[in-house]
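Dear colleague,

Thank you for sharing your sequence with our group. We've completed the structure prediction you requested, and as agreed, I am returning the results in plain text so they can be pasted directly into your records. Please verify that the sequence below matches your submission; if there's any discrepancy, let me know and we will rerun it promptly.
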Amino acid sequence: MPLRRKFRDTPGAGDSTPSWAASSDADAGQSGSVAHDADLDGAGAASGAGGEVGEPAPGSEPPRDADRERESTSWKLDAGTEIFAGRTVFKRLGGGSMYEVYLVWDDWLHALMVAKLLRPNRMDDERARREMLRESLVLERLAHPMLVRTFGADLDTAYPHILLEHLEGDTLRRLVKSHGFLPMEQLLPLALHVASALHYLKNREMATST
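Please find the predicted structure tokens below.
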């Protein structure tokens, strides 16, 4: 489930004001958003998608074979490509094995958003389409300050995708990579925000794996 957290004027964070998000299908997480299907397909991308989505953990080697496979199944959309009427690509953020995440400009919302696209090799994958629809429906029912918002899904287009909120700043992963382990004054607020989101989801009888 896409989570959101912004760091502002927090001791130990330097001059940056990073944010992070997680996405629900860690395959997915992503803008934007937190991660889905263990490789940030989703998040959501998640949305807090200020940093690269699907980047390797600090100190670890990137999965080169997986990276090559993802690159071979990428849409490779250039800046300015229209994925939907009034919705154009700004840049690619990353993705996982089933989905690809782009930062886009939406004319209707007049804002930068995050689009989580079904990869071209998954266009005929009914399971992937069902999961994308399910994620969109779940997110539409949620309303919490720590959860990235969705702005609908367009699945019957040339580029099936979910539109997610975009949060400026770095991911939590990049924050740790840049500044090292977080001090207690950052960890405690972060833990409280995550606990708040989990408490909300539990009260909504939502499985934390969605």
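Summary note from our side: Residues 5-58 have pLDDT under 50 and may be disordered.

Kind regards,
the structure core
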